[in-house]
Structure formats: C-alpha cells, structure tokens
C-alpha cells in the first residue's frame, strides 16, 4: 500500500458570520417566505377596517370584517407553517 502525503496539521478555518441587524434579517426572512408579511398586512388592514366600521355603528359590516380577520389570520398561520416545512425540507436535502 502506497503512503500518500500526511494530513495537514492545520485545522480547517471556521466560517465567518457577520452580525445581522433587524432590517437585514427582516429582508432575508421576507425573501424566504413572502406570504407571511403579506398575511400580516392583510390581517392588519381587515382589523383596522372592522374597527372603523364598529366605531361608525355599522355592526353588520364590522362583524363581517371580524370574520374576514379570522380567515386572514388562518392564511397567515398556514403560510408560516408552510414556510417552516419548506425550510426543514430544504435543510434536509
């Protein structure tokens, strides 16, 4: 059996990670899963519109908006869970 060159005595250099600020992290997370911020904005819009309707005394429309808010929250939750599953599958492969 032929002897090859000896293994290097120096350890492999560790990867260098830079500090990530809030804005950088928000942009990265938005690029990874754009449906979550969209769902949050939709939920906020429906909630605001429902509260304005409630304040004006339009209870029927206010109730409709609160139901729409629940649907928007469900969409946001589904987008969040879908993003987590996609990230886990990407890390696995």
TrEMBL record:
Places the protein is found: Mitochondrion membrane
Residues in HIG1 domain copies: 7-93
One GO term describing the cellular component: mitochondrial membrane
TM helices/strands, residue ranges: 35-52, 72-89
Keywords of the record: Membrane, Transmembrane, Transmembrane helix
Protein's UniProt keywords contain Membrane: yes
One Pfam family from the record: HIG_1_N
Highest taxon, organism lineage: Eukaryota
GO biological process: mitochondrial respirasome assembly
Protein name as catalogued: HIG1 domain-containing protein
Primary site of residence: mitochondrion
């Amino acid at each position: 059996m032929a002897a090859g060159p000896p293994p290097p005595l120096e350890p492999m250099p560790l990867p260098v990670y830079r500090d990530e600020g809030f804005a950088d992290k928000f942009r990265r997370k938005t690029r990874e899963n754009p449906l979550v911020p969209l769902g949050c904005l939709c939920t906020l819009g429906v909630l605001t519109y429902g509260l304005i309707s409630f304040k004006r005394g339009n209870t029927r429309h206010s109730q409709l908006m609160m139901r729409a808010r629940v649907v928007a929250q469900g969409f946001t939750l589904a987008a969040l869970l879908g993003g987590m599953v996609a990230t886990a599958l990407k890390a696995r492969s």
